[in-house]
Amino acid sequence: MWMVTACLAAIGCILAWIYWSKKRRQNIFKDLGIKGPEPNFLFGNLHQLHKQSLYESHQMWTKKYGKVYGYYEGTTPVLVTSDLGILQQVFIKQFSKFHGRKLFPIQPDPDSGPQAHMLLTRGDKWKRLRTIINPTFSTAKLRLMSPIMNRCTDILMSILEEKRLEGKPFDIYSIAQGLTLDVIGETAFGIQVDAQRNPTDDFLLHCKSIFMAAVKRPILIYVALIFPELRRFWWWLHQLASCFREDDFQWLENSLGRVISLRKKETEHRRVDLLQLMTDAEKYPVLERRMSQLTMRRYSFNSLDGSDSNSSDNSDRGKPFMRQNSWHLSSVRNRSSSTNGYTNGHVNGHANGHANGHANGHANGHANGHANGLSNGIVDDVFDEKKPQKEGLTEAEIKSQSVLFLLAGYETTSTLLAFTMYQLALNPDIQTKLQKEIDDHFHENDMPTYTTVNHLTYLDMVLSEISRMYPQGSPIICRRCMETCTVNGILIPEGVTVQADVWSIHHDPEIWGDDVDKFVPERFTTINKITRHQMAYMPFGAGPRNCVGMRFALYESKMALVRILMKYTVKRCSQTQVPLSLKEGGSISPNGDVTIELTTRQSSP
Question: Do the Cβ atoms of 143 and 318 come closer than 8 Å?
Answer without folding.
Answer: yes
